[in-house]
Amino acid sequence: MVIFGGSGDLAKRKLIPALYMLHKRSLLENDFKIIATGRSILTSDQFRERAEESLSKYINKSDFESGWVESFLPRLSYFVSDPESINDVMSLGENIKELAGNDYRVLFYLATPPSLYEIIPGNLKEAGLVSSSTRIIVEKPFGYDLASAKRMNDILRSVFTEKQIFRIDHFLGKETVQNILALRFANGIFEPLWNRNFIERVEITAVENMGIETRGGFYDNTGALRDMVQNHLIQLLALVAMEPPIAFNEKEFRNEVVKVYRSLKPLSEEEIERDVIRGQYIESHLKGGRRVLPYREEKNVNSQSMTETFLAMKVNILNWRWEGVPFYIRTGKQMPTKVTEIVIHFKPTPHRLFSSRDECPEQNQLIIRLQPNEGAVLKFDVKLPGSGFQVKQVPMEFTYDKLGGVQSGDAYSRLIEDCLNGESVLFTRSDAVEASWNYFDPILKHWRENPVTPLYGYPAGTWGPDISDRIIDGGKKWSNPCKNLTDTDKYCEL
After folding, report:
1. Higher pLDDT, 18 or 485
2. Nearest CA-CA partner of 177 in 464, 437, 414
3. Stretch 227-249: mean pLDDT, rounded?
C-alpha cells in the first residue's frame, strides 16, 4: 500500500491507526507493506517514530499493546517524493519493486489535497505503476462542483477501471450507518411502514460543537454544503429512502443509491431562496464567560467571508414511496453539542381518543443516533398508572455499546479492509457523485449569481438561525437533540 500524503494529518490521525487495527486483528497478509510518501524530509525510522506517537494518541489505550506495535512498525517505510514530479513517481516505482519484488499488487491511497487528484493518476500511468490488479482510494471531496466532479471522474477512468476506483467516505464505514439498512430491511415491523402512507417527515442532523479549528484556509473555500451536505448527509438520506436491493452486492446496492439521487426534485430559484437556509456563526459568550470568536475572526478566514457554517434545507423525492414526504437535512459548526442522528416522524393517529394527548407529542418517532451514544430510540405513548387515561410518551432505547465486538467508530479500518478484499459496496460510484452534484450545483450557482442571498448570523452555541424552522411544514420545528439519547426533547446544557 502506498499512501500519497503519508506525512499529513489524515495519515497520522486515521490511516496509520486504521492499518494498525487491521494488523492487530490479523487481517493483513504477512508480506503486506506500507510505503508513506510525501514532500516532508524524513527517514523511514523517523516516520516509524511518528507513527508510534500517532498510535499512542489516536487509538484506544486498550488497543495500544507494545507487542503488536513492535510487529506493526516494520511494515512501514517512508519515501521522500513529490507526486507532481514524474521522475519522483518513477523513483517511487523502483522503491516499490525493491520492497516487494516484481510480483506485487499495489493499493494507492490519495491522502492529498484534491488538486493532486488530477495529477497523480496520470503520473502513475506514465511511470508504469498501473496494472489490472492496481487499486486506488480517493478521499472526498469528489469535485468542487458538477464540472470538476466530471473532470475528476474522466481523469480517474482514463487510468483505472471503475472496479479499481474506491471513493472513500468514512461515514459509510460506520457500523451505525450500516445499521440503518439492517433496521429497515431486517425488521418486519418497520419496512411496511417505511413510506408516504405512514411517515410524515424525516429529519437528518449532523452538527458539531466546535468551529473550524485550524482549517480556516480550507473551510473558507469550501463551506458546509460542500463539506458535509453534498456527500455525508445526502448519503444518509439515500440509506433512509432507498428501495431494498434485490441482493446486497456492490452493483445492486449502489444502483439503488443512484436511483434516490436521480429522484431528488430539482430546486427552482424560488425554492432555493425559500427552502435553503444558510448561516454563519457570530460572536457568543458561553456559560462561564468563555468568548467564542465569530467565524470571520478565525485564522485564515476572509474578514468579509460569505461562507456558510450552517445549512438547513428541505429535500423532496419524486417517486412512489416518498412523494409528499419532506426530508429536512441540517449541518452546522459551533452548535450546542456534537450529534448525528436521523429522526423518523410517523403520522399521528387519525383520531385523538385520549384528551391528555394535547399535553404530549402526538407522533411516534424513531430516532437513529449515529454519534455519540450510538443506538436507536422508539418513542411511543403509554397510559400512566392511576385513574383515568393520562397518556405519556416514553422511549424504548438500544445502544450499540451493548453488543461488543469490533468498535463501531473504526470506520477507516472497515473500509480499507473492504478495499483490500475488492468489496466496493460501501464506496461511492462515479454516477452517484455526478447525480449528487447535479442536484446541489444549482444552489451554488444561485449563490454565486445572487450575492444578496441572505446569510444569517447565529450566536455560537445555539441551534442556528431561528429562521431555519420556517422550512418545516405545518409550523413545526426542528428536533434539537441532547447528548442524552433518551432526552431528545430538551436543550443541551452548554
Report:
1. 18
2. 414
3. 93
Domains of the chain (ranges, CATH numbers): 2-170 (3.40.50.720), 174-407+430-475 (3.30.360.10)
Look at residues 372, 117, 334, 341 and name the one whose alpha carbon lies nearest to residue 224. Answer: 334
pTM: 0.89
**Active site annotation includes 232:** yes
| 260 vs 325: CA distance, rounded Å | 14
d(CA 353, CA 61): 54
Selected catalytic residue, list 23, 170, 232, 345: 232
Q: Is the peptide bond before 442 cis (omega within 30 degrees of 0)?
A: no
3-state secondary structure the chain: CEEECCCCHHHHHHHHHHHHHHHHCCCCCCCCCEEEEECCCCCHHHHHHHHHHHHHHHCCHHHCCHHHHHHHHHHEEEEECCCCCHHHHHHHHHHHHHHHCCCCCCEEEECCCHHHHHCHHHHHHHCCCCCCCCEEEEECCCCCCHHHHHHHHHHHHHHCCHHHEEEECHHHHCHHHHHHHHHHHCCCCCHHHCCCCCEEEEEEEEECCCCCCCCHHHHCCCHHHHHHHHHHHHHHHHHHHCCCCCCCCHHHHHHHHHHHHHHECCCCHHHHHHHEEEEEEECEECCCCCEECCHHHCCCCCCCCCCCCEEEEEECECCCCCCCCCEEEEEECCCCCCEEEEEEEECCCCCCCCHHHHHCCCCCEEEEEEECCCEEEEEEEEECCCCCCCEEEEEEEEEHHHCCCCCCCCHHHHHHHHHHCCCCCCCECHHHHHHHHHHHHHHHHHHHHCCCCCCEEEECCCCCCHHHHHHCHHHCCCCCCCCCCCCCCCCCCC
CB 49 within 8 A of CB 7: no
Residue 482's pLDDT band, with cuts at 50, 70 and 90, is low
List pLDDT tens digits, range 414-426: 899 999 999 988 8
- Of residues 278 and 400, which shows the higher confidence score? 278
The residue among 362, 391, 384, 385 whose CA lies nearest residue 476 is: 362
Q: Is the pLDDT of residue 347 over 70?
A: yes
- Whether the per-residue pLDDT at 405 is higher than 90: the answer is no
Rounded (10°) CA dihedral 203, 150, 258, 255:
-150
Q: Give the up-direction half-sphere exposure of residue 181: CA atoms within 13 A in the CB hemisphere.
A: 21
201: how many CB neighbours lie within 10 A of its CB? 20
Could you read off the pLDDT of 163-216 as tens digits, one per residue? Answer: 999 998 887 877 778 888 888 999 999 989 999 999 999 999 999 989 988 788
Nearest to 108 by CA among 91, 87, 93, 88: 93
Cell 511518528 belongs to 50
